[in-house]
Every structure is written in C-alpha cells, then in structure tokens.
Amino acid sequence: MIVSNKCLINAIEWAGKKINSPQQRFILGLTAIAIQPVIDFTNKNVDKDTREVSAARTSAKIIAGTSVGVLVRWACIKAVNAFSSYELKTDGSKVLQILKKSKKDIFTPALARISDDVTVENFKHLYSNHVKNLGSILATLVMIGTNFLVDVPLTVWLTNKFTKMVKSHDTKAKEVNNEP
Amino acid sequence: MSPNLFNQGIAKAWEYYSKDVGKSLIHWGSVGWVFSSLAQIFAIAINKNIDKKEKKFLIPQEMADGAVNVGLYYTITQAIKSLGDSLVESGSFIKKDTADFLNALNTNNLQLKDFIKTNGSVSEIFSLIKRENRFGGVEQSVLNNVFAALDKKADSFSHWKNGVGTIFTIAASVLACNVITPYCRNKIASVFQQRHLEKTRLSTLTGNLPRELPAVFNTFKI
C-alpha cells in the first residue's frame, strides 16, 4: 500500500515524534479501565464475592498504577531534558560528534558513535527521542521505589474504597428487592 | 557506578533507541512489568494481615501472574512491531515520496515490492547508495538527482518507519496488557484458587476447624 494521504502521513509521523512512554502509559491505563474490570466482573470461574473484589482491586491497581506511572515518567523526562544540553561538531550537513554544553549535562551522549546518516536537520528529532527514551529508562529505575512506597499503599486504599462502594450498592439493591 | 560506565550506558541508549522509539517502549516496558510484579510479590510477603498458609498460595499465584504479564507483553509487542517494520521495509506500507524515489532507481520496471525484495529492504537500498555512491545500471543524470535528495528521503523514510513502529507497539501493548493478559491471568488464578479450595476442603474433612474467608480478604476492611 502506497500512502499519499497527507493527513494520514502527518498523523503517523506525529506519533513517532510525540508519543513515548508517558503517553503509552496513559493510553494503556485508559483502555485498561474500560476493559479489565469488565473481564474480571464477568469471570464465571469464581464466585460473585470474589468477582466483585477482583474487579474493585483491578480498578484500583489501574488507577494507582496509571497515575503514578504517567507522573513519574513525565517528571523523569523533564529531569533528563534539563541535564542534557549539547553542542554539535559537524561537517556542514552531517553530525560528527555530540559534545556536552557544560559539566552538569550528564545525560548528553558524548561517547556515542554517530552513524554517518545523522544529518544536522534530523538531529533534533533523534535527540528528542533520546531524551524521552532516557527519561523512560530513568523512570523505570525510579519506579522500583515508587512501586513499593506509593503504588501498593494507594492500591490498597483505593481497593478498600471501591469494595465498600460495591458492597453498599449490593446492600441497597437487596433492601429495594426486600431480600434478606 | 563509575563515570565512564555511566557515560557508556548513555551512549548505548543513543545508539540503540534514538532511531526506534518502539524498541525502547518494548524493552523498558518489559523491565517495568518485571519490577511491578516483584513489588506485588513483596507486598504480599511483608503483609502481616496474610497468614503464612495463605502466602504459600498467593505468592506462587502472583509469580505466575507476573510471568504471564511480562512474557505476553514482550512476545506480543515484539511480534506485532516486527510485523509493522517488515511491512515498511518490504515496501508493503510506504509513503508516496519514498515509492517515487525508489521507482527512479527501478530501471528494470519491476513491481516495487519485487524491486525492493531483490535489493533486500528499503533501508538496505539507502545504505548501499550512501556506501557505494552508485546503484546498479542507473544513469548518471538520474543518480545526480538521487544523491541530491538522498539524505532528505532517508530521513523521511526514517520518520515514517519510526511512526509506524510506535503505533504498532502501542496497539500491541493495549492488546497484550488489556485483553490477552487478563484473560490468561484469570484462567491461571482460577486454577490456583481451585487447588487452594480443594486443599482447604480436604483439611476440613480430616477434622480441622472450618476456615472462614482467606485472610487476604482482611486486607480489604469494609
């Protein structure tokens, strides 16, 4: 298929330039909250009480995980961006070497081998990818801590809240139907 | 970590991932899943509200859950992204300007996909021209135009391939994480639960005191 539709081309190339791990995490969270609790709630392999607790826990995990995940990734990308200023050594059109602008730019890839197809024009786009990718890697390491310190307690708190809501809804439904 | 090792790591990140966002999302997404699963297992292990017998059931279940999460995420996203890459590199899904550029080199007037297949892939055609400053039996006048546009067309192709790879990776991760994994996870969890219920039933029959709901439910105080 040869694509000539400019809107489609721009949309696909925009995705490559702008979407990275925070956006991916957000999309995953959004689709997860629409799908996963329903799968858990309709799981006929377990009893009703387990289904309800499972769906409540899944919803809590998704909300806690997505909120913390997006925030940590966004913050880490900002941090890497602040410490990765650069200067370029070029031959006019091709980039020969990346240099740190100052000692504080610890995330600038000064030792990187630059392949001969990296043009000055394209460099900003590649460097933007590099900053976002490095921010995502840093976020993965930071989340070793936040998983325990933030995700788990937040999940437990939200699960209790949601389970209470489900149980009180069940009780009200039984009262309306005059069930014991 | 020594400064040199750190700088080498930063350099490797540039070399592996700067041209391919999708690859980074797959690799580091999988690593993230591993740490997330370990956190869940650790949370169960240190939870004083769960007794040891329950932990013997929950921890293996959580380990199986984690293995399913990581395994399915990596295999599904890698497979679907590879499909996207091969569609682009084989010319099955490319932009018109790249197709026009390649057709200018197609002196035998083959079908575009056959022409690309003969020369390996789209990226290999670009690399060959850059390396050897010529291409097959193409006339000099055409070659001059090709060289003038080469960097721009190569960058344009790279942006396209990166965009397609990113979209395929995102779609694959939604499929893996939100559809296939929960389904598989529920199947595995029900197997664990059935085994646990069977053990509990047998211990009740042999005269132990009847058990109430598993202690893990104490965590969810109403």
Written description of the protein model:
The complex is a heterodimer of chains A (180) and B (222). With 180 residues, chain A is mainly α. In chain A, 70% of the residues lie in helices and 7% in strands. Chain A contains 4 helices and 3 strands. In chain A, strand 2 and strand 3 (95-100) form a beta hairpin. Chain A is elongated and about 85 Å long. The model of chain A has no long low-confidence stretch (mean pLDDT 86). Chain B is mainly alpha-helical and 222 residues long. Chain B has one domain (22-198). Chain B has 7 helices and 1 strand; from the N terminus they run αααβαααα. In chain B, helix 2 (21-46) packs antiparallel against helix 3 (52-89), helix 3 (52-89) packs antiparallel against helix 7 and helix 4 crosses helix 7. The two termini of chain B are 47 Å apart. Chains A and B meet through strand 1, helix 1, helix 2, helix 3 and helix 4 of A and helix 1, helix 2, strand 1, helix 6 and helix 7 of B. Strand 1 of chain A pairs parallel with strand 1 of chain B, so a sheet runs across the interface.
Helicity range of chain B: over 70%
| N-to-C order of helices and strands of chain B | HHHEHHHH
Largest sheet of chain B: none
Q: What class would the helix/strand composition of chain B place it in? A: mainly alpha
CA-based shape of chain B: elongated
Please tell me how large the radius of gyration of chain B is.
27 Å
Instruction: Give the helix level of chain A as a range of percent.
Output: over 70%
Oligomer: heterodimer
Number of domains of chain B: 1
Count of the domains of chain A: 1
Portion in strands of chain B: under 5%
Distance between the termini of chain A: 64 Å
Radius of gyration of chain A: 24 Å
Tally of separate helices of chain A: 4
The most extensive contact between chains is:
A-B, 71 and 67 residues
Overall morphology of chain A: elongated
Average pLDDT for all residues of chain A: 86
- Record the strand order, biggest sheet of chain A: 2-3
